Amino acid sequence: MFCYRLTAGRVRAVIRAVKGTRDLLPPTTALWNHVEAVCREVFRRYNYQEIRTPILEDVSLFVRSVGEETDIVTKEMYTFVDRDGSQLALRPECTASVIRAYIEHRLDQRPGLQKLYYMGPMFRRERPQKGRYRQFYQIGAECIGSESPWIDAELIELVVRVLEALELRDFQLLLNSVGCRDCRPAYLQVLRRALQPVASRMCVNCQRRAETNPLRVLDCKVEADQAVIEQLPTILDHLCDRCREHFALVQRLLEDRQISFQIQPRLVRGLDYYTRTTFEITHGALGAQNAIAGGGRYDGLAEELGAKQPAPGIGFSIGEDRLVLVLETLLTKQGRSLEPALDLFIAPVGEEAVAEAARLASRLRRQSLAVEVGYGGKLKRLLELAHRLGARHTVIVGEDELRQGRLTLRQMDSGEQIQVTEAELLDRLARRSFNAAESASRLLG
Ligand code: HAM
Q1: 176: which of 28, 120, 243, 267 fits an S-S bond (Cβ 3.0–4.6 Å)?
Q2: pTM of the model
Q3: Is 320 in the same domain as 386?
Q4: pLDDT by residue (tens digit) across 15-29?
């Protein structure tokens, strides 16, 4: 985290961002904002409302929900003992927090289903690599209060619409059912039996999980174990009638919506709370960390966290870092720039013009134009700067212009200059102004 630099004869440690965390810088932050604006617009259309939960939670929340045997809880959670002795964690995910808040605030008393979305940082102490960070961001949604397969299909449709609205193509939707409390115990017995003769050939974690939580074996990423995992019985062959019907209907409803998917019988996901439908969305441009979103149903989680009434639910989280990475790669390939448009650069020439330029900038900004003023410097330098900042136009404010009450408007790409009044300037530029919400809804059609 430190490196040393010599300043004025003294060696000072340079402090860098903590391993696995990173600064998000412009112009990429514009893409983050765009992704978030598009998501908010899609959430609005599906009647989801925002929830903001704390980043700090009680450790036991994740132990009870995500599961004691999961990698997230055993290896990856950032935990500490607070001064009063309470055990706290930086949230590794947000579904558990949403359900905690749902119970704590009696959201079941509100009318209809609770459809909640969130955006924010999560923390997992994983080995950092491209697309995998220790502080990463998720955009997620949870629909609580129904076990209907129609809700599963609507939620999956929502994720797909987000990705389409962001012009993302070539993603794969992987789908599975992990059964319910009725049928899973019998399957786990079958799985345990199948693991007995082969577990010794697997990694040490799988050897332990074969006993403690055999479903987690299916989630193992160790290359050498994959051949064994391929041969293990799958849950799809052991679903009860209700789970089988539920899964069949989800598939039919996705087909009705022309959403293509691939059944992946070993997709169990790395969290213990799932029941029935589970899914992941992957994209080839990402390499090893190819999942851009994951989700599933979690009937029974609310009761596990103390709810008196059942509150079945389903949700998903998009990995925003990974989504932005894919979009950035695609935009670069298409030669599209991320730099936000600067509508106008104002180049004042002379002391008197500076004050006028500042007043003009202030008026134009109130008309929602993005304006930069070059305070000081020769005109040639200011025009170079305007060019480098990607301004579409520059207005030159000099003594002549001030005397005549007119401005010189320079079109930056052609170099063409014309004289305009302020009203004419506004008329020319106003058509090009936009805001994030408008741009998102224009994109969505
Ligand atoms: P998850 O699969 O653990 O699910 O995470 C969802 C997404 O977050 C992943 O597909 C990935 O894109 C991103 N992600 C996870 N870990 C990292 C990391 N270390 N660095 C960068 N991105 C990462 C959940 O978290 C569940 N809460 C999803 C859910 C919501 N299920 C029901 N509702």
Answers
A1: 267
A2: 0.91
A3: no
A4: 999 999 999 999 999
